[in-house]
Write a structure and sequence with these properties.
The chain is an alpha/beta fold and 149 residues long. The protein is built from five helices and five strands; from the N terminus they run E-H-H-E-H-E-H-E-E-H. It has a single domain, classed as Dehydroquinase, class II (Rossmann fold), CATH 3.40.50. Strands 2-1-3-4-5 form a five-stranded parallel β-sheet, with helices on both faces. 36% of the residues are buried. The structure holds 1,3,4-trihydroxy-5-OXO-cyclohexanecarboxylic acid. 1,3,4-trihydroxy-5-OXO-cyclohexanecarboxylic acid binds next to loops.
Length: 149
């Protein structure tokens, strides 16, 4: 049974740590990847961690995940609010999907309140800072273990 989890990050998250730190904090995406890699090893999961500013790249990784992954954790960033194409891609993926937002999108501008990805996500984490990624990983581990029973 697959223990591979994809963590996918959308546009501008390459600037995490430098970008609007009052909203997104000072941790970098490399810090997030490091924390997730350490936790994945503890949980017995394998990780692929990616970021792109291009919608097609995220769609291609979702297609790749279809072949071999036990779950997807995705912070689609601004594509959350715009991308039917990412929703369609996630709808082709049959294992758990967790949507993560570093900030509490519901406390922000109204255009951030709607998420196309939430129409597919099995769970949504928002407003827990970068800790949301490790919380999502723990949830995926639980779901993978439940499926293996
Ligand atoms: C975000 C929230 C989105 O609205 C925004 O466009 C982002 C990051 C978050 O992690 O809080 O780029 O997904």
């Amino acid at each position: 049974m697959s223990k591979l989890v994809y963590i996918l990050n959308g546009p501008n998250l390459n600037l995490l740590g430098k970008r609007q730190p009052a909203i997104y904090g000072y941790e970098t995406l490399a810090d997030v990847e490091g924390a997730c890699t350490t936790l994945a090893a503890e949980l017995g999961l394998e990780l692929r961690f990616h970021q792109s500013n291009a919608e097609y790249a995220i769609i291609d990784w979702i297609h790749e995940a279809r072949e071999n992954a036990a779950g997807i954790i995705i912070n689609p960033a601004a594509f959350t609010h715009t991308s039917v194409a990412i929703l369609d891609a996630l709808n082709t993926f049959e294992s758990p999907v967790i949507e993560v937002h570093i900030s509490n999108v519901h406390k922000r501008e109204s255009f951030r309140h709607h998420s196309y990805v939430s129409l597919r996500a099995d769970g949504v984490i928002a407003g827990f800072g970068t800790q949301g990624y490790t919380l999502a990983l723990r949830r995926i581990a639980t779901l993978v273990a439940e499926k293996a029973k």
